[in-house]
Amino acid sequence: MPAPIAQELAASFELTPAASGAAGVVVTPAVSVDGPFLDAVGPQLRIVANYAVGIDNIDLEAVRARGVVVSNTPGVLTNATAEHAIALMLALLRRVAEGDRCLRRGDEWEWGPDFMVGESLEGKHVLVVGAGRIGRRVGELVEAHGASATFAGRDADLGALLADADIVTLHCPLTPATRHLLDAAALGAMKPTAILVNTARGPVVDEAALVQALREGTLAGVALDVFEREPVVTEDLLSMENVVLTPHIASATRETRLAMGRLVVSALRAVLLEGRVPENAV
Fold first, then answer.
1. What is the pTM of this model?
2. I need a surface site. Which of 108, 139, 171, 231 has the fewest CB within 10 A?
3. pLDDT tens-digit profile of 39-91?
4. Which residues are catalytic?
5. In the predicted model, is pLDDT for residue 1 greater than 60?
C-alpha cells in the first residue's frame, strides 16, 4: 500500500501482529478466520472487519457460533474492479503485455501490416459470470466498447453460454459451488478463439486444466488477477505469451482503498462504540 494511503488509514485504525484479547480485528483476504483463529483472539471478540468484499477467507459458521459480527466492503470497489477487468481484456486482446516484453527484451522488430496484430473488443460477445454489482458494471463497460454482454447467474446453463462467448469474465464469489467452476469440461466447452479473464477468486478456475487448454490451443488466452494458490502462480503460466498476469490489484486505486478503509472503520465504530450492527455487516 503506498505510504500516503497507509498513513491516512493508520490515523483511523491500527493493525497489530497479535490480535489476542482484541474486541475487534481487521483482516485482509490473506488471513483465514476460522475456529482456531477466533479461539486465539478470545471470547471478547465482537467484530471481524474484512478489508475486502469477498468473504471466502472467513468461516461464517464459526463466527456465528461465537456471536461475532462480520463486515466487508461492498460497493466501493465495484468500478475499480470492473475497470481492471476491462484493462485485462484489452491488454490480452491488443497484446499490450506481449509488446512490452518484446521491447524490454530488446527483440528486433519492424512495423508491418501483420506485426503483433491483435483483436478488438468491439463486436465481441462477452459472457459475464456473476451478475452482482461488479459483473453488471463490467457489462456496462464492455457495451460502451461496442461489445455485447450476457450474464450467467447461479442457475444458468453455463455450458451452453460458454460455447457462444468470445470472452468469459469471472465475477462470482468463491463458494463450494463455484470452486473449479471452470474445470477441464467447462474450458473445453469454450471456443478455441475465446479468452478468459478472472478478477474474482483464483480457485474458481482449475489452473492445471487451464494450463492444459492453453498448451493444446483449445483456449486463445487468459488474463488473471487472482490465482488458485495465491500468492503462488502456476509456473507454466509465467512463460506463455498469451497470458497476462497481475498480482491481485483489481481494487488497487487510491480512491477505492481509502473508501474500503473508511467502511472498515465505520463498522468497527458501529459495533464497538455505538453498540449496533453496521450497515455493511455480512
1. 0.89
2. 108
3. 999 999 999 999 999 999 999 999 999 999 999 999 999 999 999 999 999 99
4. 201, 230, 248
5. no
